[in-house]
Design goal:
This is DUF7746 domain-containing protein. Helices cover 66% and strands 0% of the residues. With 106 residues, it is mainly α. The longest helix is centred in the C-terminal third of the chain and has 20 residues.
């Protein structure tokens, strides 16, 4: 929510928005950023850009590369603290498929 406010209300660029969020980290988030991630990880996150599937950069109408720093930061936080949810997707698909089969049988 804070990132959306920074971007929409003040027009803050994506990278600056992420830096503001990082400056406000405390507790486990601060420890994760300061001690778990390497400097290379920091640079990867802070220099993220939006790309097409073939990894070519997405350009805005003005010819600028579109940053993707906030989304990359949030994704990395989620993956570190929650884990990869892809196994849940497969399980949910199986459960929904089974539910559909039961409803058809009734």
């Amino acid at each position: 929510m804070a990132a959306n406010t920074y971007k929409t209300q003040t027009g803050t660029p994506d990278k600056a928005t992420a830096e503001l969020l990082i400056a406000g980290f405390s507790g486990q988030l601060k420890g994760w950023w300061d001690y778990h991630l390497t400097e290379t990880d920091h640079l990867y996150i802070l220099n993220s850009i939006q790309t097409y599937e073939d990894q070519t950069p997405i350009i805005d109408p003005l010819g600028n590369i579109i940053q993707d720093v906030v989304s990359t930061l949030i994704l990395n936080i989620s993956l570190h603290f929650v884990g990869n949810p892809s196994h849940l997707k497969d399980k949910n698909t199986e459960l929904l498929s089974n539910l559909n089969s039961v409803q058809k049988a009734q």
